[in-house]
Design a protein that fits this description.
Blueprint (H helix, E strand, L loop, with lengths): L28 E2 L1 H8 L3 H8 L9 E3 L2 E5 H9 L9 H13 L3 E4 L2 E13 L2 E10 L2
Antiparallel strand pairs: 1-3, 2-3, 4-5, 5-6
């Protein structure tokens, strides 16, 4: 810049910032509505889970407001984690197929054979019932 009237402008002061701190709460307290949005559960279901006698959600009650810390909820939710849902129908079918293959086993020196027959259990469900026959 050119000096005006023979006076040069004074240089602007330089501010050096070595570190910037950002104040963001990474573990916020959530209202039930906020927790419903975070978890995907309805507020009604969350209210039921707050008073569950076996495994209640940890919370804070401030006046009439219910607050849940996100980390507490995540820890609580971790107790329900499963790595897969067992398919009981497939397990039962595999056992029946194995039994229908007329697997033989030894018992007391005598060969016995398992035969599977289907039986009624009511309301249309069927179950496999094994009959043991002596191999004589």
């Amino acid at each position: 810049m050119r000096p005006v009237g023979g006076i040069s402008p004074s240089p602007r002061p330089i501010t050096v910032v070595e570190e910037v701190g950002v104040s963001v709460s990474l573990d916020p307290y959530l209202t039930l509505r906020g927790l419903a949005g975070y978890s995907g559960l309805s507020t009604r279901k969350l209210r039921d889970l707050l008073v569950d006698p076996h495994h209640p959600i940890p919370c804070f009650r401030v006046g009439g407001k219910i607050l849940v810390r996100r980390s507490d909820f995540d820890r609580w939710m971790g107790a329900f984690r499963r790595n897969g849902i067992p398919d009981l129908g497939a397990i039962a079918d595999a056992m029946l197929r194995e039994l229908q293959g007329e697997s033989k086993y030894e018992s007391g020196g005598q060969a016995r054979q398992l035969r599977v027959r289907k039986g009624r259990v009511g309301r249309g469900e069927t179950t496999g019932a094994a009959e043991v026959q002596n191999g004589r």
